[in-house]
Design a protein that fits this description.
It is built from 15 helices and 15 strands. The protein has 470 residues and is α/β, with parallel strands linked by helices. Helix 9 packs parallel to helix 12, helix 9 packs antiparallel against helix 13 and helix 11 packs antiparallel against helix 12. The structure holds adenosine monophosphate (AMP) and zinc ion (ZN).
Amino acid sequence: MAPLTPGKAFGMYCCGPTVYAPAHIGNFRTFLIQDVLRRVLESDGIEVCHVRNITDVDDKTIRRSQEQGRTLSDFTAIWTEKFHKDCRELNMLPPTIEPSAVAHIPLQIEMIAKLIEHGHAYVSSDGSVYFKVASDPHYGKFVDVSTLQTQTTNSAGEANSADEYTRDNVADFALWKARKPEDGPNFWQSPWGEGRPGWHIECSAMSTHYLGETFELHGGGVDLCFPHHENEIAQAECSCEHYGSFAQQWFHSAHLMVDGAKMSKSLGNLYTLDDLVNKGFAPMALRYVLISGHYRSQLNFTLKSLDDAASALAKIEKSVRKILAAAGMSEADFVAQEPDRQAPWGDFERAWKTLGNDLNVSGALGGIFGAVASLAKREMTPEEARTQLMGLTKILWALGLKLFTIKEKNSVPATSEAADVPAEIAAIGEQRWAAKIAKNWAESDRLRGELEQRGWKSLDRKDGYTLVKI
Ligand code: AMP
Ligand code: ZN
């Protein structure tokens, strides 16, 4: 990946949170994967302009603020602050720009006006404005429109004003919603009367405002493909009448499932960061779990996976302590060390290359396990050890992982360290264990085969494994 214009930043727009409640761990899966992508690009020397919006006006934010007797801005400020706090605990980089919908109403009105001017939108009798789907011959990037019914009204003959709808109906969607009594004081002036913007328009208006008509990459959870992203493309491209101009790449992350099921309040399996911290889990273990599955595959979250992640981190720390000793460096100095982009990757080159291959995080983690295990056993000068530790700092930064932050250590998988296991066999064993923890079965089987070829096998237990000669 590279910026479209050499010398300019790589534009990355990500749909942000709707701030009416704490974000759940599914939301964080998507935001964390975007954070890793950005870190990988920056580690590669690419300057990134990461824009992630805050949706601070919609049906949910208005309704909840009224239920609590707060102004919309006071209410959304509380949840925005909570979101930022969770992001910090999960060691996420703050976006370069974090525009809010409410702070950009005139920009949205401007885009709607252009859409009306170009014949892509119309004003309904109540002063709402709708996007005319039939006016956009390019509509249908993420759905096959020919298989869908186009409808401009709902079953009661009223215009469809819901922001979210299913693939069964391609509806003309609301760009501007005329003021309703239930909106209370939450309305703005527009050329079409008082009202508020629809949901989709904020992302088209703010992404193109900050990143230009054409930018490199747009991200979001897979649920946003339709209608949200479809509508974002339609609004942005029809307003400037440059088709194909909007985001050049789409980065959709598959959903997080919990105990094999979709997360939902009614199933009692919807977790926030606080829920897990209150159960004694560390944010860094959650980060490890949420980034470890491949972004295009659904990830199944279990509480046990947090224990496994904490054990995996403790295992890395155990080897790193030995490398620190060789380097004459303290844990505190290592934790405070900033990555030096120009420094060599050392033995972490393989982990870095693996990460660069379609963001193979679990493969990169396997590479880290292998490298720290073999370095822990290697004779090194302090200088060599320090060079290797810089390589480790760089790869950990790319993943956003921090060592030595989990106070309560969970069980560390016990290997047959004391026995006569050659370093390269131990390294393969550790990589296989990492692949197994990450549920990367194909990689785990491959490494098991590699061990067997060399005359070794791994006896697995619940909390670890022992390598024995066949
Ligand atoms: P929202 O606050 O609902 O607008 O969602 C914020 C982000 O989280 C969007 O990119 C969604 O697609 C994403 N998201 C929502 N649910 C999940 C889930 N279960 N797994 C992964 N991402 C999700
Ligand atoms: Zn969006």
